[in-house]
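<instruction>
Derive structure tokens from the sequence
<data>
Labelled lines for chain and fold
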Amino acid sequence: MGKAGGRRMTDEGGTMKVVIGLTGNIATGKSAVMQLAAERGARMIDADKVVHQVLATDQAVQDGIRAAFGDVVFAEDGTLLRGALGRVVFADAEALRTLEALVHPAVRQEITRQVQASDATITVLEAILLLEGPLHALCDQIWVTTCSAETQLQRLMTYRNMTEEAARQRIEAQAPQADKIARADVVIDTDGDMAATVAQFEYAWEKIEA
């Protein structure tokens, strides 16, 4: 069991259930690892999708955002403009902390519900802020993806059509990758080609299945 262990569960048939917490800074390859896990039958919980769900549907959260950031981050029909909100908070560390305080409690509640409801043998919870809050307590193992800052920059500019300035801003707004790596049970370096990433994934995955 990994350093985060202590909560492995069994279902009614006595089958062991394992929760992997997957994290890593922006554009370090988490999506590739998630796809590999999904192909092997894991139940996937994407914290970013839960955040989008909460932002779109939780009225209390929306009211808090409007009070903190004003009408400028909302369309005329009341829809939250995530792009406008992102431009505000990723340019201001204090604004980002304010947003996180508004959103994270509702997100944690929904993620906890999904983890507890999962009937899969292996559940993968992907969350970029997994280690910055209490979500890691839901996990048996912590997996961290990593790559060079230059690779992060190129991926953001190529696949997310960000300007270099915007990409660097996103990268620098996050905690150092080394902080996550220091707490990892498994580290997957995605600087190489996909075959190298797959080989690292399969080595770690086979140890769990064994």
